């Protein structure tokens, strides 16, 4: 699951905080501090949560949010985007054979996981804007390197 998020969320440049079960107190504090820093820099924060559709997968974010909200003096949005009952039907996710009525993220095929991750992020992040910014950065880096190479040459000529 974690590797899918690294792969498909990578182009969006979003921080990932995989819980892997109940989150530890230091980990929840780190998340709270991160949210606080981003919001204090004038940016809104929307936390998207992906997890299993079972009792534990529903309970984990609720208990984590209690602490995170307590330790974050700023408001942020939290949205559980998957797995949800409508996605079980949409993607044809099979039940956990040992626990009927429960559904695991790992039961999603890779294409469905990609679609769920990217379509959720697309609601908040414009990849075209990210690409435009990357191109501007690339051009700026080329200009800076050219300038530095010329500067080094001029500096060398003074020594000789």
Describe the structure in your own words.
This protein is mainly alpha-helical. The protein folds into 2 domains: 2-125, no CATH class; 126-160. Helices cover 59% and strands 7% of the residues. β1, α3 (55-71) and β2 form a beta-alpha-beta unit. α1 (2-9) crosses α5 and α2 crosses α3. The termini are far apart. The mean pLDDT is 90.
Q: Structural class, from secondary structure content?
A: mainly alpha
Envelope shape: extended
Mean pLDDT over all positions: 90
Strand order in the sheet with the most strands: 1-2
Q: Can you summarize the main beta sheet? A: 2 strands, parallel
Q: What would you report as the Rg, rounded to the nearest angstrom?
A: 22 Å
Amount of helix? 55-70%
Question: Regions with pLDDT < 50 over 5+ consecutive residues?
Answer: none
Q: Count structural domains.
A: 2
Distance between the termini: 60 Å
Q: Count the strands?
A: 2
Beta-strand residue percentage: 5-15%
Give the count of helical stretches: 6
> What sequence of helices (H) and strands (E) makes up the elements?
HHEHEHHH
Task: Provide keyphrases for this structure.
160 residues; two-stranded parallel ribbon; 2 strands
Secondary-structure topology with pairs:
Layout (H helix, E strand, L loop, with lengths): L1 H8 L15 H16 L5 E5 L4 H17 L5 E6 L2 H7 L18 H13 L4 H33 L1
Parallel strand pairs: 1-2
Helix pairs in contact: 1-5, 2-3
